[in-house]
Amino acid sequence: MSTLKFFSGLKQGVGLTRLIMSAAIGLSVLLSVQGTAEAQKPNIKIGVLTFVSGSGAAEGEEGVRGAQMAVDELNADATSNYGFELVLGDVREQSTEAVVSAFERLSGDPEVQVIIGSYPSTTNFEIEYMAEAKMLYLIGGNAEQTRAIIEPDPNKYPTVWSLAPLYKAYGLVPPHHLEEMRQQGLFKLNNKKVAIVAADNAWSMAMYQDMKPEFEKLGWTITVDEVVPASEISDWRPILNKIRQDPPDVIAYIDYALNNAVAFQNQFMQDPTPSLMISVYPPSIPEYRKLTGKNSDGVVADIMMYPVQYEGYDDWPRFKTAFKERYGVETGSQGAVLYELVKLYDTGLRQVGDPKDRMAVADAISKLKIETMFGHLEFDPKTHLARWGEDYFPLQFLQVRDGDIFTFWPDKYANGEYMTPPWMN
Q: Are 134 and 115 in contact (CB under 8 A)?
């Protein structure tokens, strides 16, 4: 029944007048309550520099979904004094123009008090823009680039803090861990040869420059030493043919580009050598495991920024389950990274109270000692990076199996055991 028909069916006079007045008062009270609630929870926009389009869009979407989960949790939290909203800045293919354009749009919005992102650019040059604008910037990747910018003058960048630890472990630890695996009888060395394939970008080169001499110090022979352009590569056959001419014990693939890693592994499996495949980061991305299928069963990943699970702390399984229930797909580390960055900002904000006092919020964040999905978080004041190590953010060795990925080292965080890759049997 329409409102008009309802009113026309009532007796005229006092009854109708009282009903109208009562409805008006009720509506006024409702609007007043809503207005009060909104006044009590002023809005804060969280800028996100990420891949909305382009080859990294799948990973970007995963990160945004994780950030949205954190925002929704905070908005439902009665103890929070603010409402939060995500605003996206598309960095597309990490071009300088795209990153600058996205930064200018986000920082120009007076309601944006913080910007988060994993690796919007390849060099983290945007840190300089953030510092100049006194914008709070929380990063989840590109640790070496962050260190190179901040370490010479940490006081110049008080609003920039990174959840990503120093990448030194990526280059230094794998050669030694392979020796440990050999001693444990998990991995047999036939010729102590290694093929290294890296990309010509700052992320890959930082690891490559440490890993290559470390293998050589331990007596390994590098049979293939390739640095490919930082662009999409669809045909890996020339490099794979070099590897097949002198099959090494280990192939170390060092690049984060998803499509390249997928093509490399799928083409390797067309005629695999009896080599342990170590791919630094891509296997942790669900899309990688989906696109490689059975071809990636047995691939080892060594990752610093990957969620941990240990006795007494199970936020990662809870988050994974909630993510799958909400979105119908699996999440990798990127969903967790942006989730934690949002929560990190909220933790610092609660200590200060005023979101416009970005310096104070940044200072509060810099002094935090808290548990996260990646381990115990404390920042190094010299680099503004999260500390790394087994008691902080550990480097983990994981292995793909049946479309999932399991940690097999360090023992403290292990939820699976190493298996010999099927192509090596």
A: no
Three-state SS sequence of the chain: CCHHHHHHCCCCCHHHHHHHHHHHHHHHHHHHHHHHHHHHCCEEEEEEEECCCCCCHHHHHHHHHHHHHHHHHHHCCCCCCCEEEEEEEECCCCCHHHHHHHHHHHHCCCCEEEEEECCCCCCCCHHHHHHHHCCEEEECCCHHHHHHHHCCCHHHCCCEEEEEECCHHHHHHHHHHHHHHHHCCCCCCCCCEEEEEEECCHHHHHHHHHHHHHHHHCCCEEEEEEEECCCCCCCCHHHHHHHHHCCCCEEEEECCCHHHHHHHHHHHCCCCCCCEEEECCHHHCHHHHHHHHHHHCCCEEEECCCCCCECCECHHHHHHHHHHHHHCCCCCHHHHHHHHHHHHHHHHHHHHCCCCCHHHHHHHHHCCCEEECCEEECEECCCCEECECCCCECCEEEEEECCEEEEEECHHHCCCCCCCCHHHC
> Which segments of the chain belong to CATH 3.40.50.2300?
43-167+311-386, 168-303+395-424
d(CA 386, CA 179): 28
Q: How far apart, in whole angstroms, are the C-alpha atoms of residue 425 and residue 416?
A: 20
CB 384 within 8 A of CB 291: no
Rounded to two decimals, the pTM is 0.80
Query: pLDDT (tens digit, 9 = 90+) per residue, 23-67?
Result: 333 333 333 333 333 446 899 999 999 999 988 888 899 999 999
43-167+311-386 — its CATH code?
A: 3.40.50.2300
pLDDT at 7 over 60: no
Q: Is the separation of the CB atoms in 388 and 293 below 8 Å?
A: no
Tens-place pLDDT, residues 78-94: 999 999 999 999 999 88
pLDDT on residue 344 = 98
- For residue 312, report the phi and psi dihedrals to the nearest 5 degrees: 90, -5
CATH architecture of the domain with range 168-303+395-424: 3-Layer(aba) Sandwich (3.40)
CA dihedral in degrees (212, 213, 216, 218; nearest 10)? -110
Distance of alpha carbon 225 from alpha carbon 197, whole angstroms: 6
